[in-house]
Amino acid sequence: MLFVPVISLWMSALGVVSLALNLRAYDFVFALGWQLKISLMKTLYSLRRFYHVETLFNGTLALAGCDQETTGFAWWAGNAQLINLSGKLLGAHVAHAGLIVFWVGAMNLFKVAHFVPENPMYKQGLILLPHLATLGWGVGPGGEVIDTFPYFVSGVLHLISSAVLGFGGIYHALLGPETLEESFPFFGYVWKDRNKMITILGIHLILLGIGSFLLVFKVLYFGGVYDTWAPGGGDVRKITNLTLSPSIIFGYLLKSPFGGEGWIVSVDDLEDIIGGHVWLGSICILDGI
């Protein structure tokens, strides 16, 4: 029952946001009228190939600092209207991440509740549990799922994380500073600042590299992963002899994607897969630095 309050709070927030968006769309259609909309679109159609065309705008729906006259984008252009509001843009991204994590957690728990161990996962239309199984959680010899509790824990953790992200997104979108440059200079940015843009790109690359090495550490030190090629129909095992030869790892990129060579999907052992993650993580971190 731990995740019930989290679901209730998060679904309430989603309901408020959905209602607001529906009301704005309803007002937009009847305020402009279809005839005016069609007339304007005909005028803009012949010019759009040669000139920058702004989207339509309904002044009655404008928000301070977020209207077309200020940003150059109308409300239905999405996050583009927040292009110069780093604080609000952060809120939109955090809330979006919360929605994704909430879906993962809720769907994970739903599938756990309906999981039938006697049937293969592919016959049950599962798209999340197989990924957890490949990490070696809840899987025994022969690929048999012997424990679904790790899947339940994963779903609950995702729901709790989604609540944190959701409230963080709402705070930055509604209550936090519109721009971060004054209050939090490290997180603030100006799009024309080349050094800042490169720094942001570098941070993202470093995080991607760390993510790659997390899988490597899981394979080496934290229980291993499920190997479909293991004797006896597959089993969970640790990978100790990684393939680090650049000729083998990058040789996959030189294979033809047609015919029997199979390009990068032709890999058939975990040593090459985990070794590739070592290379990928190293390249991302070095590029980020």
TrEMBL record:
InterPro entries: PS_antenna-like (IPR000932), PS_II_antenna-like_sf (IPR036001). One of its GO terms (biological process) is photosynthetic electron transport chain. It is found in: Membrane. It is a multi-pass membrane protein. Keywords: Chlorophyll, Chromophore, Membrane, Photosynthesis, Photosystem II, Plastid, Transmembrane, Transmembrane helix. GO terms for molecular function: chlorophyll binding. The keyword DNA-binding does not apply. This is Photosystem II CP43 reaction center protein. It comes from Capsicum annuum. The lineage of its organism: Eukaryota, Viridiplantae, Streptophyta, Embryophyta, Tracheophyta.
